[in-house]
Amino acid sequence: MVEITNKVQQIELNSFKKLSSILDANGIPYYAIGGTLLGAIRHQGFIPWDDDMDIALLRPDYEKLLVILPEILINDHYFLQTPFSDENYALSYAKLLDRNTYIEEKNNYNDAKKGVFIDIFPIDNIPESQLRRQKQITEIKRLDSRLYLKLRYNFIDNPIKKLYSPLSSEQLDTALEFKHNRERAMKTYNNLKDHFALKNLASQYDYEKELFTETELGTPLEVPFEDTTIKVPAEYSSVLTRLYGDYNELPPENQQNSKHITRLIYDNQEFLR
Predict the structure, then answer these.
(1) Alpha carbon distance, N-terminus to C-terminus of the chain
(2) What are the C-alpha distances in Å from 8 to residues 110, 127, 171?
(3) What is the number of other CB atoms lying within 10 angstroms of the CB of residue 191?
(4) 105 in the Ramachandran plot: left (φ > 0), alpha (ψ -120 to 50) or beta?
(5) Helix H segments across the chain?
(6) Residue 119 — φ and ψ, nearest 5°?
(7) Residues 129, 194 contacting (CB under 8 angstroms)
(8) I need a surface site. Which of 65, 92, 235, 264 has the fewest CB within 10 A?
(9) Contact partners, residue 99, CB within 8 Å, separation at least 6
(10) Are the C-beta atoms of 230 and 20 separated by less than 8 Å?
(11) pTM for the complete prediction?
(12) Measuring CA to CA, which residue among 266, 251, 263, 269 is closest to residue 106?
């Protein structure tokens, strides 16, 4: 288990160095979030058992990155996976994939492109009204569910799936319409000057956990991360406390488990968990 986790972290770190150099060169701010933020502050690097990296950008910066990154990476071994660059990809945020790798994930079987990845999330405005917030997130989750079904995302590996015919152009067109509708739902309140807060609307945490104020995000701070540095929210302590409570306390040993990758193929070697 340790070997595959260490190998994945090494690959992710190299991907992050590439990505952060592009972000810095183009004046695009970003923030470590979730477990990556926790690792940066508590461990000055990865949480030892973590096997993914999460960064987030304000929506205008996120959209700028999505425009420039594919051209910069055109002759490189990376692929920017988005709902629109990979027709079989159902999620609402981007991933930077290392194309020299192949992975299999726990409880995640689908036909989207696979590789060791960094998650890249957009941060959007949300309204003050609880009713409008509930309506927005319900619509996003409804479209998520329809896309998971349409693009044949499964929690278990179903051998019968190999007998399925490929998705038709009509099915893919319907999925594309769902993706556009979901993105519009996520961006509903971005043009409002008076908004309640900022949020990662693709967050896997409870709704209230991954909210941010503009002050909390602020100007990113640079902190140590493994043998490099990473940028974090200005008020990272309040962000982490909302997410984890006492974030300096380690979880019980039986909860110190990698949650994503179960198989890695890299450099003509196979690593299994």
Answers:
(1) 5
(2) 20, 38, 34
(3) 8
(4) beta
(5) 2-25, 34-42, 59-72, 130-150, 169-186, 214-217, 236-244
(6) -80, 135
(7) no
(8) 235
(9) 77, 78, 79, 115
(10) yes
(11) 0.96
(12) 263
Residue 52: is it exposed, middle or buried by C-beta count within 10 angstroms (0-12/13-18/19+)?
Answer: buried
The whole-angstrom separation of Cα 205 and Cα 27 is: 29
- For 30, half-sphere exposure in the C-beta direction (CA atoms, 13 angstrom radius) is 29
Please state at what angle helix 2-25 crosses helix 59-72, rounded to 10 degrees: 100
Span 56-105, pLDDT tens digits: 999 999 999 999 999 999 999 999 999 999 999 999 999 999 999 999 99
Q: Cα dist. 209→199, 234, 243, 269 in Å?
A: 9, 17, 5, 39
Q: What is the DSSP letter of 124?
A: E
By the 8 A CB rule, do 93 and 122 touch?
yes
Sign of the C-alpha dihedral computed for residues 68, 73, 39 and 105 taken in this order:
positive
The predicted-structure confidence for 137-174, as pLDDT tens digits, reads as follows 999 999 999 999 999 998 777 776 666 788 999 999 99
Cβ-in-10-Å burial (0-12, 13-18, 19+) of 184 comes to exposed
Token pair of 33, please?
């979030």
Q: Which class for 194: exposed (0-12), middle (13-18), buried (19 or more C-beta within 10 A)?
A: exposed
CA–CA gap between residue 107 and residue 93 (Å, rounded): 19
CA-to-CA distance for 273 and 253, rounded, in angstroms? 17
